[in-house]
Structure formats: C-alpha cells, structure tokens
Amino acid sequence: MKLPVLAAACTGLFGLATALAFFYAPTDADQGLSQRIFYFHVPLALTSYVCFGWGAWKALRYLRTRDARADLESYVAIHQGVIFAALTLLTGSIWARISWGVWWSWSEDQLVLFLVLFLFYCAYFMLRFSVEPGPARANMCAVYALFGVVLIPVSFLAIRLSKRFIHPVVFNSHGPQMTGSQFLTFCVCLAAMLALFATLYSIELAGKRLDGALRELKELLA
Amino acid sequence: MTQSEKYTAAAYLVVFLAVLVYVVIIGSKLQRLQREVEQLVSRVRESSADG
Predict the structure, then answer these.
(1) Is the four-CA dihedral A205, A211, A214, A218 of positive or negative sign?
(2) CA–CA separation, A80 and A49 (whole Å)
(3) CA distance A44 to chain B (A)
(4) Please, what is the Cα angle at B33 between B28 and B38, to 5 degrees?
(5) A65-92 tens-digit pLDDT
(6) Closest by CA position to A81, among listed A192, A209, A200, A183
(7) Per the CB < 8 Å rule, is B33 touching A200?
(8) Residue A40 contacts B, CB cutoff 8 Å
(9) Domain map of chain A by residue range?
(10) Which of A40, A97, A98 minimises the CB distance to B12?
(11) CA-CA distance, A28 to A25, in Å (whole number)?
(12) SS3 for A201?
C-alpha cells in the first residue's frame, strides 16, 4: 500500500477510534471513565508484540538470506516496538494510579514481565550501536531479536498463569469479557494502532533507506 | 474536571504527544536529508562545470 493512502487510513482510523472510545462505548459501571484507557492501552501492548514479532521474522529472514535490507527492517520494527511498549507502560501506569492508587506494582507478574520485555529490547540498541556496522553486527542483532520473541508468549500468558493478580483479564477461554459495543471499539482501536505501526514503520524505513543511499552517493563522489 | 477525567485525558494525550514528537523528529531528519541532497547536487554541478 502506498504511504499517503496508509497515512490517510491511519488518521481516519485514529479519529474514529477516539470518537468511539469517548462517545460510543458505554461507561464502565465499576471503573467509570478511566476504563476508557483500556481502548488505547491494550492495543498499544498488542501492537508492540506485533512489532517485536515482525522484527524477529525479519531477523530470521536475514539469517537465512543474509540480505542487509532484512536487517534494517528488523531494526526498524524493533525500534517501533520499543516506542509502543514505552507508551503501553506509560498509559498502564496512569491507569494503575487511578484504579489501584499506585503508579506501579512489583507484585504483578504481567507488569514486571512486560517491563523485562521492554528492557530486553532497549538493550538491543545498546548491542547494535556498540558494534561496527557490518555482517557481524547484523548477525548478532538477528540472533538477539529472535531470542527476545520468546518473551512475548511468556508475557502474554503470565496474567493467565498467575494465581494472584489485580490486573484485569478481559480475554479468557470464554472469549472477550465485554459488551458488543466495547468489543467493536476495541477492534477499531487495535486496527488504528496497527495502521499507525504500518505508517511509522514505512516512513522510518524509507528515511533510513534514503539515508543509506545518500551516504553511498557521498562516498562515490568523494 | 474530576481526577478520573484528568488521568484518562493524560493517558490519551501521552499517545497523541508521542506521535507528534515522532513526526517532528522524522520531519527534522527529512530536512537534513534535503540539505544533504542539495549539497550533493551543487557539488556535482561544480565538478561538471570544472570540466
């Protein structure tokens, strides 16, 4: 899909998602208005999983083909994933403050595991920028990205495996625990976040490729 | 404005602000690339004028 079309779709979906979250979805009887944070918080977390998964897939492709483009795509996806994960932590922290009265709870497996996942991928950049560019760096980063993807199901399942938690479980074996209008709003918000990822990924990738091409041109002209 | 409204607005603003900051960073990077392209074009013009 072309970038302007993607950006327009993303803007439209974001406008619709915000309107649905505030004017269509019913107010939660228990949590009140603050429950509406859910419509951005959970899609942000799921999108970060998608970003890390996409980064791992591209890393696998790099290891199989040794194509430098796959390495760059893996890096950009992980960069996006870290941004989405940071936003998940921020919105979750705000929601925790209003719902639980604390900004953070170390006793919650889901929270701590998500933080571990976030820090693991933050360390990816330390690894990447501490090694000279080239095949050795690409190999190391690809292996690291593949290791990280193992944390995603652990993080996702932690809340379901944990016996003691205060973090709500909305999706369980009986399906989504919400009304039809809430589920529709959630789906639109998730689509908006995925569209945002696709747009930002395409923009950043295009910028990085242009940067690389310019550097090559400079070297040729020098 | 109640506490609940303030926190909910803050959570949504954080997301919109992050997207805005990202767009600003990408915009400044695009300007830098544009400057570099212009410099390269002028260098090529100079070298072709020199013969």
Answers:
(1) negative
(2) 10
(3) 9
(4) 125
(5) 999 999 999 999 999 999 999 999 999 9
(6) A200
(7) no
(8) yes
(9) 38-164+178-221
(10) A40
(11) 9
(12) helix
